[in-house]
Amino acid sequence: MGRDGLGTAGLGSSGMGPAGLPPRSTAMLWVWLLLGSSWGPGPPGVGAVPRPTATYVLDDGGGLGRQFDGIGAVSGGGATSRLLVNYQEPYRSQILDYLFKPNFGASLHILKVEIGGDGQSTDGTEPSHMHYENDENYFRGYEWWLMKEAKKRNPQIKLIGLPWTFPAWIGKGENWPYDYPHVTAYYIISWILGAKQYHDLDIDYIGIWNERAFNSKYIKVLRQSLDRLGLRNIGIIAADGDWNISKEMVVDPYLNDAVQVVGAHYPGTKTVPNALLTQKKLWSSEDYSTFNDEVGAGCWARILNQNYVNGNMTSTIAWNLVASYYEDLPFGRCGLMTAQEPWSGHYKVEAPIWITAHTTQFTQPGWSYLQVDGHLEGGGSFVALTDGLGNLTIIIETMTHNHSQCIRPPLPHFNVSPQRATFYLRGSFYLVKTLQVWYSRLDFESANSILFKQLHPLDVWRGSFSIDLDVDEVYTLTTLKTGQKCSCPEPPPPQPFPSNYKDDFNIRNPPFSEAPNFADQTGVFEYFINGSDPGDHVFTLRQVVVQRPITWVSDADQTISIIGNFRWVNLTVTCDIYIEKQDDGGVFIAGRVDNGGIYVRRTKGVFFWVYADGTYRVTGDLAGEEVLMKGLSGVRASAWHTLTLNIQGASASGLLNGYPLWENVTISKPSNGWAAIGTRSFEFAQFDNFHVEAS
Q: Highest taxon of the source (predicted)?
């Protein structure tokens, strides 16, 4: 058999040839068997090399393995879905269908979202529902909307919330969320209750603190608080980092009782003995995080199987759901699909979507794995699952080492070679007569991959069948007939960010709290109604984080929101600004901004600052350490001013209220970058009538 077909299903059974063609004649089948060859593109038996053969038994007679908990993905950690919300219809709904709609595309079982905490969490900040202790708003950001869209398509999808950062008031002056565990528990439970009260969303699981230290006392307080409020059905996942929490769980029965799932990140398909001893569900609660080309698809295919085969993990959750952030931020295109151009409507359904479908379209949470080893003798792996009602799904992957390396951890060398696998179905599966076949082959030479193709059904004869496997393939063999590879009309072609872009923020009831296309990197910039302004600045954009949050990475000391095209070289940025902080407040507009995300502290660019004390500066960095020009401006707080920054080639100039303030400042680097706005510190400030024109 060639790459597109299956071998015989046992002596006297029906097989199928390349690309799912009908079975050969009985005489040809006997010739095939006698010569020991495979179906292939050429005449069978001519110059063919016999493949190594191994047998595998699938039997539910002795009981089942662990319960399957589903495949999912993360939105957040952070701001990874930022641009998705700005897509126009029908493209936004098409993207959501590919992610969540059952038997359509990825058909995800789980959606995990960031509980925004106002701090930088990889590719941006996500707003908290409680910026301040006496503040509650359950409509900020876009995760509420995303969870509702997921539930609309799949009412059975499981929802998880996990914080990366926390607003400053949680720590009462310390960069630590555990000193006051009842305060932190109150904050998290407020998010859970708000999800239900304002959006009718039932949260299924809650996490502790992403990839940071766990605190046993806090976990117990959170569990007790949930139980007291009648939220016993909400499971706690801990600790979303390594497996170390399991060491404490096996010696602390109260902690063990508090935790429902032991979740590890990027476990390399391996677990540890203590995790098994907890007798809890084991999940890879964040994994993948790999560029979404064919190698990324190979990584995803391998770990979806091997997290269970090697590590007994019954759920794998990808970071991230959809690469919907500026690609030049850290970890660009590390999503299951790509949707980073709301201005054009262009998106791309990447190979990992269809690799996901091999599992998600033919299983459901609550199914069980069969008790099998799962390692193929020629390299690769398989898992088999059942619903306990007679249905059987087998997923096979033969990913090679160099074509399946994830971003982390390092992958030890291994070999995979062409092979034949013979499966014997026993127990309740002995009566299975036919299996539906779905096939993918990742092509690393011509980029002509076959993705999630339905082949001719496979006949099973007397409880057995054989399949010829080449390298870098995925097969799903299933009794279910519900699989579909759906497609929408082709989206519009890609286009760069508009070279002439304006936003006056004049919207009374915005659908989201953030203005389109602005990507906050430190601080949070929200639509604001300025009721005290009688003139042209009633509707503005306001920076609202006034204390440094409990951080996950090294947030900048200044706030900043970027926008535009990272390739921009020559540009003019104009914006009305309003400093609210007296004496030492300040704001900036910027161009050629070269960094963001977890690297925001090292951001370079051309920054035009004005301060409440009547001075200005031009700096080559966000930190303000590389001063290119400074002087007096006459700017004061509590008044509107218009700033203009013009960068052409190696020279920059600035205008204040339409009049030149400084000029002929020499710019050596960076050579290109985004436009940006921001503030001197964590302080209130407003922006209006933003305009960027690039050439």
A: Eukaryota
Please give, one letter per residue, the 3-state secondary structure of 77-130.
CCCCCCCHHHCCCCHHHHHHHHHHCCCCCCCCCEEEEEECCCCECCCCECCCCC
Hey, what are 667's tokens?
């710019």
User: Which tokens hold the place of 4?
Assistant: 């597109």
Q: How do strand 315-319 and strand 70-75 relate by DSSP bridges?
A: parallel
What is the rounded distance in angstroms from the CA atom of residue 391 to the CA atom of residue 362? 10
Query: Can you point out the beta strands (E) in 270-354?
Result: 281-288, 315-319, 338-341, 346-348
Per-residue pLDDT reduced to its tens digit, 97-116: 999 999 999 999 999 999 99
Return the H-helix or E-strand segment holding 648: strand 640-648
Give the Cβ contact number of residue 3 at 10 Å: 19
Calpha distance 407→195 (Å, rounded):
33
Which band of pLDDT confidence, cut at 50, 70 and 90, is reported for residue 695? confident
Is there a contact between 541 and 687 (Cβ–Cβ < 8 Å)? yes
Q: Is 500 helix (H, G, I), strand (E, B) or coil?
A: strand
pLDDT per position as a tens digit, 102-159: 999 999 999 999 999 999 999 999 999 999 999 999 999 999 999 999 999 999 999 9
Under a CB-based contact definition with an 8 Å cutoff, are residues 125 and 553 in contact?
A: no
The full DSSP string for 33-70 is: HHHT----SS-TTSS--PPPEEEEEE--TT---PBP-E
CA distance 431 to 435: 12
Question: Looking at 515-612, which runs of residues are DSSP E strands?
Answer: 519-522, 525-529, 539-543, 559-563, 571-579, 586-593, 604-611
Task: Indicate which residue of 211, 377, 580, 693 is catalytic.
Answer: 211
Tell me which DSSP letter residue 322 carries. Answer: -
Q: Which of 286, 473, 526, 683 is catalytic?
A: 286
Nearest to 58 by CA among 470, 416, 465, 332: 465
> Residue 410 CB: number of other CB atoms within 10 A?
7
Active site residue 211: yes
CA distances from 206 to 76, 151, 680 (A): 14, 17, 35
Contact assessment for residue 557 and residue 681, using Cβ atoms and an 8 Å cutoff: yes
Tens of pLDDT, residue by residue over 198-230, are: 999 999 999 999 999 999 999 999 999 999 999
Q: How far apart are CA 325 and CA 488, in angstroms?
A: 22
Instruction: Tell me the three-class secondary structure of 411-446, residue by residue.
Output: CCCCCCCCEEEEEEECHHHHHCCEEEEEEEECCCCC
Q: Which residues contact 619 (CB under 8 A, 6 or more apart)?
A: 607, 609, 625, 626, 627, 628
Residue 388 is predicted with a pLDDT of 97
How do the residues of the chain divide into helix, strand and coil, expressed in percent and rounded to 5?
Answer: 20, 30, 50
| Annotation says 514 is catalytic | no
Residue 493's contacts (CB-CB under 8 Å, 6 or more residues apart) are: 344, 346
Q: Among candidates 372, 353, 267, which has minimal Cα distance to 316?
A: 267
| pLDDT at residue 229 in the model | 98
Give the pLDDT confidence of 479-510 residue by residue, as tens digits: 999 999 988 899 999 999 999 999 999 999 99
